[in-house]
Design brief:
Elements (H helix, E strand, L loop, with lengths): L1 E2 L2 E2 H8 L2 H22 L2 H4 L2 H12 L3 H10 L3 H15 L8 H51 L6 H55 L1
Antiparallel strand pairs: 1-2
Helix pairs in contact: 1-8, 2-7, 2-8, 4-5, 5-6, 6-7, 6-8, 7-8
Amino acid sequence: MNITGITLAEAWRNGGPLMWVLAGLSVIALAIVLYLLLAQRRAAITPRTLVSDVFSRLQTSDYGEARRLCQRRPCPFGVLVLAALDAVRGAPQGTKPPVSAAVETAGAHLAERIQAAVDWLADIAAIAPLVGLLGTVLGMYQAFGGIANDLAANARPVVLAQGVSQAIITTMFGLVVSIPCLVFHAMLRRRASKRISGLETLAVALEKAFA
């Protein structure tokens, strides 16, 4: 692979030890993206068969089977149902169970957890350019510090070129990591908002089912 006239291996060497930090951030970002693509699927958050089966059990007040269905297939929707069932179980006899409060509390925790997972990408997108900027500062310090300490005039352009090369490469790779993170963050944030909205709709339906 050739980058602006030099190979990737040469760019890696010239970039210095901070290239390992940027590589680590890129691997973490890729892992987060792959995880979110799987975790944010509709089938992973609100499985249609589970939703249908649970509501059919709630219509007949078969709370035990509804609980077993949710326990056999853990998912955010199941968490809402279990919170509602726990509220019904824990309510004193003859009193109205606080289903609405229990579902809203569980839903708020779920929404925060879903959104927080996406925000990791925004954190990496902010950190990567700063690592690149640190490489820029170190590269320029190396360049001009080397010139100041080098007594051989004919060696000064080489020393300057090495430092400037590190500065440019780390900055470039910092942006290479950051830009895709921002793109996926925007895409997955909208996807997360859509999934959260679906959970809110089901939460309202749950409250009506226990009313």
